[in-house]
Design goal:
The chain is α/β, with parallel strands linked by helices. Among the domains are: about 90 residues, Alpha-Beta Plaits; about 90 residues, no CATH class; about 180 residues, 3-Layer(aba) Sandwich (Rossmann fold), CATH 3.40.50; about 170 residues, 3-Layer(aba) Sandwich (Calcium-transporting ATPase, cytoplasmic domain N), CATH 3.40.1110.10. The chain is about 50% helix and about 15% strand. The strands form six sheets. Strands 26, 27, 28, 29, 30, 31, 32, 33 and 34 form a nine-stranded mixed β-sheet that branches. A hairpin with a 7-residue loop joins strand 28 and strand 29. The protein is flat, with a radius of gyration of 39 Å.
Length: about 1450
């Protein structure tokens, strides 16, 4: 509110408000630096002396005095009077200045009153003032330095108000209501921003200013070391002002030159671009205020579109929460010590009178045994702080404690990366290890210097900090994170929190701000071009009115676009917090306590309450997608939309409304088609996800039942059996022989043994006490408690690594390049037409004709071609078991030159199979086993569980042995007639082998199959060829060498042993001894039979194949050698990539030489893809696991394999190969390459036809007094030849072409010189044939007849070329025939013919048309040499598009 000091004298009005006993009073001149610290103390002392005032604090950062007072003893007016009296000692009467809100209110009032007065004047038919007077106002922005000089003289807000008021007055006098209303809309947005921010300050001020100390702040800020770099709007302003001034000077030389120059100045005004920037910042400011963000300096939001560097003070990433990562007991158990220490690191620590205490090791005076210290320090280093846990003064354990990261750390880092580089300031080693930033800078007292150094290097910096006022003020946008127990960071431009969610929203907004500003400049440019053309076309007042309307429409469009962007930002789902708890390292009792559950599970009421509390964050786990309307609006953001819309607007303003409607209809139809397809693809994906969703067995209140996966909440108890997919991350409570297939998460194809003991390992693959979502139970059973669901699981958190913007679609990029080429061509043709008209003295008519040609020359069918080709290819792939989530990924698949395959399940079958049998010296494959090797395999079969006909064996190793024996024709009775099982000792991870006691005709035998390191020590002899001899040390070394050789070749090795046994029926561990060693089995994940052929086909297509796997290097190398993948390349491991981290050149060198990457994590896969991108490759990545999702997302095209692909992989992928076969991927590549060939031919038709139209129209205009075709005729040509024929060519697959020919297609082969040659050839053929027909008709008849003949010949020549190109495709021929029939109908139908400026033709004229059509078709098929750079284009079969 604005307060007066009651009835007492006051020095005018000032901003002052009070709430809950706290008053905020503006000090005049503070914002302009007129109030020093000494002045501030004077005001403090004056106000503090008043009766009823508790304290007063001068806050120079806010420019306010903050007062705590007794509302019953003193009122706000008294406080304001006291401030006024204090000000009189150091401020003159003129120190008061206009504030931003008052300026906006006055400007809004002027706009509204002006619009109302203009409307009344128009209704009364009062004469309007010349709108050209607006040029006087635009000169303020066109001439560098004028506005800044006015601001220095008058004050910032006063100068801006003067310019705005002058503009409103001129627009009102000129009856320019649209301009006034557009500006009023902007002022309304800015006033709503200020109102929301004021409300937030008043609502939250009490929590920030509880004490005088917390309320005081010195003046923040300082000069940047260099001038702030220009953003998109500032660069546009400089360029457009320079061009506008030059054009205005040239326009003065034309008739009525001063008026035309003024209109050029009006059209070139940069205001529409600034309007988009301001509207977005205003909407964002209001959104932030509604999210409880305090905005101290609104100008910081206006700089977001320039930001390229994010600095995050590490202090805000860690709070009071701490976590235990290791315990080394001095006495007692790890579990007991951990539980006691966990109570001490809680927030707040649990009070107890049992004597427990936790003290930093450096401050402790206890004697710790050396082995304990050694154990603890082995886990220390950069990982936290060592503490001593004591009880009653006695050391119990050494505990490693780390600061817990804020749950939104990963989300903030990901959002920052969408803006630019992310740097950590003042980060200790343990934080640097856990936060994936791009670098570090000095923090603390040196942080402000770090910010200035970055600015000196040309960076624009956002700082997210907590307490460093100087650094926050030095940043271009400083965001201060509020903390309940800390002084507010008054130096920040914005403050929010507690927590990082507001900072995340700001960074999301920064990425969006740049896009909004760029879009605003594009819209402003189109408005300026349209306004200039309209103003030059008509000397009368109508020309000035049209110029004003064009710029006002651009301004209104930018306001609408900015607010739409803010609306989308406001609807983004807040990120899901990631809990930083080392569940794997906690004892079971501590896990249960932290989750508030028991081994009996939650009761239903508690579970439902937790589910409701998580409903909002669970929504974030669902696949994101825009609605159909949002998708349609997004599809309108194409390179051609703005120029087409601007051209349509010019046509409509000049009276060609029908032409404008036709163009806009094409734009909207393309967007609607794409929107519907996108919605259909998302529905198909959601059906897939829904159908694949498994059920779970959970325990609620001691009762086991089957439930849905979406019922799970942390604290639920889940039961797991063999074959179950784990629905959520869980901590094991009980495990019986549990082995997990974690290949979807880690890439490791061998099952991993699990137990309930707390695990101290950091790597996910070594956390033996945990089970993770997306993995599968390979053997055994377990009970676990859910610790994370959805996006909080390890699989979900992996996806955060991939939250970087994916590369732009290749077809879209090519279209942008073609558009850049077509727009200058259209502009040049329009300029030539305008010049021809000027030479003949017909300026207005020539401008209209030039605008019409520019509109018609732009290929409005261009967006349709990509859409049609991609949708058609997507439908064809759906019949080949490939679900295309984003049709635009088709072209990326077609241009891919590197494919990164996951090994497990893609190149291999994803299962363990028996590959070979060794007798300890020689190894043979299954198909060539000798009797001795068959005896070994028979013993292994006897040492396996008996198969059950109703269900498969639970352990994959047993399945492999049984299947392998069946393949080799080996049975249990081989070398043991009449054998049958008596007792079984099942495999358990701690046991390491499986033993069976069996009875044969010759007596009982014990058969053992297990790990060599477990089984060999139990052997005392070696049986070979029926002979048994003692097992010597040399024999053991020989066997171990064989085991090592097999392991290096990627085999999992099992040792087989057997011995005769007594008649006792007992079997236990003690009886498995004195065994006779028989031999070894080699098992591996077999490569797919078709993989080698598929790899070879891809290589023939010029595609480099890389294997990325989490498996052992030897295993990966063996598979690669089998498939021929190495080809001179090397095997690079994850640790090697880690060693090169931070050195992009070294990483690039490793990647360039490698064919196989082993032991790689999700981050390693991302690093490989990034290196390939830096090398200029187009990359496809395949996979089916959560560990593949980040790289899948970052690739140019991501491919998820199989219906069993994890949700993370499916959601990151562009394509889902339903059958998971590598051959299907090859089919997809072929289809993608075929799409490029189809697009090439379609573009050749479209661009060649348009270029032919331009050549003919411009050439005809040079030799004729009037253009040979009018606007509607040219647009009709485009509609007949661009849409239906070109789209059908793009949609159909190339005919009579083999797959091996198609795989040689691609962007360079299809859209390079070959396309250029085709375009030029068709353009020359079309224009020459049409010119001949037009000249012939002109010589034998009227101009109207000649124009009609030219129209029909132009269409006929292009349709003939389309028919020749069809290769007999009935759809293409039908489209060409339909267009031809439409042409004849339009020309021959009276009324309709006249609408297009035609006249019905007779037999002679149609004969000329047919002759020209045949000539254009024949010329288009000729292969005459073209002077294209780089040598002659490759010879191709015109009918197929394939190499001849």
């Amino acid at each position: 509110m604005t307060a007066r000091s009651g009835n007492r004298p006051s020095r005018g009005r000032r901003k002052a408000w009070a709430r809950d006993g706290f008053a905020h009073i503006e000090i005049r001149g503070a914002r302009r630096g007129l109030v020093t610290a000494e002045h501030g103390r004077l005001v403090e002392e004056t106000v503090a002396a008043l009766r009823g005032v508790d304290w007063a604090a001068w806050n120079a950062a806010l420019g306010r005095l903050i007062v705590s007072y007794d509302e019953g003893g003193v009122d706000l007016g008294d406080l304001v009077d006291a401030v006024t009296e204090a000000e009189s000692g150091f401020l003159a009467d003129g120190a008061s200045s206009l504030d931003a809100e008052s300026r906006q209110r006055v400007t809004l009032a002027a706009d509204v009153l002006g619009a109302a007065g203009s409307f009344v004047a128009r209704q009364l038919r009062l004469p309007a003032a010349a709108r050209e007077l607006t040029a006087l106002v635009t000169l303020v922005d066109h001439i560098p330095g004028v506005r800044s000089r006015l601001r220095r003289v008058l004050g910032r807000h006063e100068a801006d108000l003067l310019v705005s008021a002058l503009g409103a007055t001129i627009n009102a006098a000129g009856q320019a209501e649209l301009s006034l209303l557009a500006d009023a809309g902007l002022r309304g947005i800015l006033l709503r921003e200020m109102s929301a921010q004021r409300d937030t300050w008043q609502r939250r001020s009490g929590e920030l200013t509880r004490t005088a100390t917390a309320s005081r702040a010195a003046r923040a800020g300082g000069d940047r070391p260099v001038e702030l770099p220009d953003g998109p709007v500032e660069r546009y302003t400089r360029r457009v002002s320079t061009v506008t001034l030059l054009l205005a000077a040239a326009a003065t030389q034309l008739p009525s030159g001063v008026r035309r120059a003024a209109r050029v100045l009006m059209a070139g005004a940069p205001a529409p671009a600034h309007t988009g920037q301001e509207a977005f910042a205003g909407g964002l400011g209001r959104l932030l205020a509604r999210r409880d963000v305090l905005v101290r300096d609104r100008t910081a939001l206006r700089r977001l579109d320039r930001v390229d560097t994010i600095v995050i003070d590490a202090d805000v990433l860690t709070g009071d929460q701490r976590v235990i990562t290791h315990v080394a007991p001095v006495e007692g158990t790890v579990e007991a010590a951990w539980e006691a220490a966990a109570r001490q690191v809680g927030t707040p620590p649990v009070d107890s009178d049992d004597g427990w205490a936790l003290t930093e090791l450096r401050h402790a005076e206890h004697s710790i045994p050396d082995p304990v210290l050694k154990d603890a320090r082995a886990h220390d280093g950069s990982r936290g702080v060592l503490h001593v846990l004591t009880r009653d003064g006695t050391a119990v354990a050494v505990v490693l404690v780390e600061d817990a990261l804020d749950p939104l750390t990963a989300a903030v880092i990901a959002a920052g990366r969408r803006v630019g580089r992310v740097l950590l300031a003042g980060a200790p080693a343990d934080v640097r290890r856990r936060v994936p930033a791009d670098g570090t800078v000095p923090g603390g007292s040196r942080l402000a210097g770090s910010i200035r150094a970055l600015q000196a290097d040309g960076r624009v910096v956002v700082l997210v900090g907590g307490r460093n006022d100087a650094a926050l003020a030095a940043a271009d946008c400083g965001f201060g994170v509020l903390h309940e127990d800390r002084r507010p960071p008054w130096g920040a431009h914005l403050m929010g929190g507690p927590g990082l969610e507001p900072a995340w929203l700001l960074l999301e907004a920064a990425a969006l701000a740049r896009a909004v500003s760029r879009r605003s400049t594009h819209v402003a440019l189109q408005g300026s071009v349209a306004g200039a053309l309209l103003g030059l076309a008509e000397v009368t007042e109508a020309g000035a009115r049209r110029t004003s309307i064009a710029t006002a429409i651009a301004q209104a469009a930018n306001i609408a676009g900015a607010m739409w962007s803010v609306r989308g930002l406001s609807r983004r789902t807040p990120p899901t917090p990631a809990v930083d708890v080392a569940w794997h390292a906690l004892p079971v009792a501590e896990v249960m306590r932290a989750l508030g559950t028991t081994p009996h599970g939650l009761d239903e009421a508690d579970a439902e309450q937790r589910r409701q509390e998580r409903a909002t964050t669970d929504a974030a786990d669902a696949p994101a997608g825009r609605g159909v309307l949002g998708t349609i609006v997004g599809e309108l953001d194409t390179p051609l939309t703005l120029p087409l819309a601007a051209g349509a607007g010019v046509s409509a303003t000049t009276g060609a409304t029908t032409d404008a409607v036709l163009v806009l209809a094409v734009i909207l139809a393309n967007a609607v088609l794409s929107g519907i397809q996108d919605a259909a693809a998302r529905r198909a994906l959601q059906r897939l996800v829904s159908e694949a969703a498994p059920t779970v067995r959970l325990r609620r209140a001691g009762v086991d039942r089957v439930g849905r996966i979406d019922e799970l909440v942390p604290g639920d108890v889940v039961l797991l059996e063999p074959g179950d997919a784990v629905p959520a991350d869980g901590r094991l409570l009980d495990a019986t022989g549990l082995e997990m297939d974690e290949s979807p998460l880690t890439g490791e194809s061998v099952p991993v043994a699990k137990s309930t003991a707390a695990a101290r390992a950091e790597a996910i693959a070594e956390r033996t006490s945990m089970v993770y979502a997306g993995t599968t139970v390979a053997a055994g059973s377990a009970v676990c408690v859910v610790v994370a669901t959805g996006a909080q699981t390890e699989a979900g958190r992996n996806a955060l690594i991939a939250l970087r913007e994916p590369p732009r679609s290749g077809v879209q990029q090519r279209l942008r390049e073609l558009t850049k080429a077509s727009l200058p061509a259209a502009g040049a043709s329009a300029a030539a037409l305008l010049a021809a008209g000027l030479l003949r003295g017909r300026l207005a008519e020539s401008v209209n004709n030039a605008v019409a040609l520019a509109v018609a020359a732009i290929p409005e069918g261009l967006p349709f071609i990509a859409t049609a080709a991609e949708l058609s290819a997507s439908r064809r792939l759906s019949r080949r078991n490939i679900l295309v989530r984003d049709p635009r990924s088709m072209e990326a698949l077609g241009r891919a030159d590197v494919i990164c395959f996951d090994k497990t399940g893609t190149l291999t079958e994803g299962r363990i199979a028996l590959r070979s049998v060794s007798d300890g010296r020689s190894r043979l494959p299954l198909e060539r086993l000798t009797p001795r090797h068959r005896e070994i395999l028979a013993a292994a079969l006897r040492a396996s569980p008996a198969p059950n006909e109703r269900e498969a064996l639970p352990h994959p190793t047993d399945q492999a042995v049984v299947a392998g024996a069946a393949t080799a024709g080996v049975g249990t009775d081989e070398a043991a007639d009449g054998w049958r099982a008596v007792r079984e000792l099942p495999f358990e991870p701690v046991r390491g082998f499986h033993a069976v006691l069996g009875a044969a005709d010759a007596g009982q035998v014990i058969s053992v199959k297990g790990a060599p390191e477990i089984t060999l020590p139990r052997c005392v002899s070696w049986r070979s060829d029926g002979k048994v001899r003692p097992l010597t040390r040399t024999d053991r070394q020989e066997i171990e060498a064989e085991v090592d050789r097999m392991a290096r070749q990627g085999l999992r090795v099992l040792a087989i042993a057997e011995r005769a046994a007594s008649a006792r029926g007992r079997l236990d561990d003690e009886r498995v001894e004195r065994m006779e060693f028989l031999g070894l089995l080699g098992l591996a994940d077999p490569s797919r039979p078709s993989a080698a052929e598929a790899v070879e086909r891809l290589r023939r297509a010029g595609i480099r194949i890389l294997m990325l796997t989490g498996d052992h290097p030897s295993t990966a190398a063996a598979v690669a050698a089998e498939l021929g993948l190495l080809d001179g390349g090397t095997v690079v491991t994850g640790p090697e990539l880690d060693g090169a981290a931070g050195d992009e050149a070294l990483v690039d060198a490793l990647v360039s030489k490698a064919s196989v990457f082993a032991r790689v994590s999700p981050a390693h896969k991302v690093a490989v893809v990034e290196a390939l991108h830096r090398a200029g490759h187009s990359v496809a990545v395949t996979g089916d696991g959560a560990n593949d999702a980040p790289a899948i997302r970052l690739a140019d095209v991501g491919i998820a394999l199989g219906e069993q692909a994890t949700a993370a992989a499916r959601q990151a992928a562009d394509l889902i190969v339903m059958d998971g076969r590598i051959e299907t991927i090859v089919d997809g590549v072929v289809e993608g390459r075929a799409m490029w060939a189809s697009v090439r031919e379609s573009l050749a038709l479209l661009l060649g036809g348009n270029l032919g139209e331009i050549l003919f129209t411009v050439g005809g205009s040079l030799v004729s007094a009037t253009p040979p075709l009018n606007t509607r005729q040219i647009l009709f040509v485009n509609l007949m030849t661009d849409l239906l024929p070109a789209i059908t060519v793009a949609a159909r697959p190339p005919k009579h072409v083999s797959p091996d020919q198609l795989v040689r297609e691609g962007p360079e082969a299809s859209l390079g010189r070959t396309l250029t040659g085709n375009v030029v050839r068709r353009a020359v053929a079309t224009s020459a044939a049409t010119a001949g027909a037009w000249l012939t008709a002109k010589a034998t008849g009227t101009n109207a007849r000649a124009s009609t003949v030219a129209l029909a010949s132009l269409v006929g020549a292009q349709l003939g070329q389309t028919a020749l190109l069809s290769g007999g495709d009935p759809i293409v021929l039908g489209a060409a025939g339909a267009s031809a029939a439409t042409l004849v109908g339009v020309v021959q139908t009276p009324g309709l013919s006249q609408f297009f400026g035609c006249r019905p033709l007779g037999p002679v004229a149609w004969g000329i048309v047919l002759t020209a059509t045949a000539a254009g078709t024949a010329l288009g098929a000729l292969r005459f040499p073209l002077p294209l750079p780089g040598g002659p284009p490759p010879h191709r079969d015109e009918g197929t598009g394939a190499p001849a």
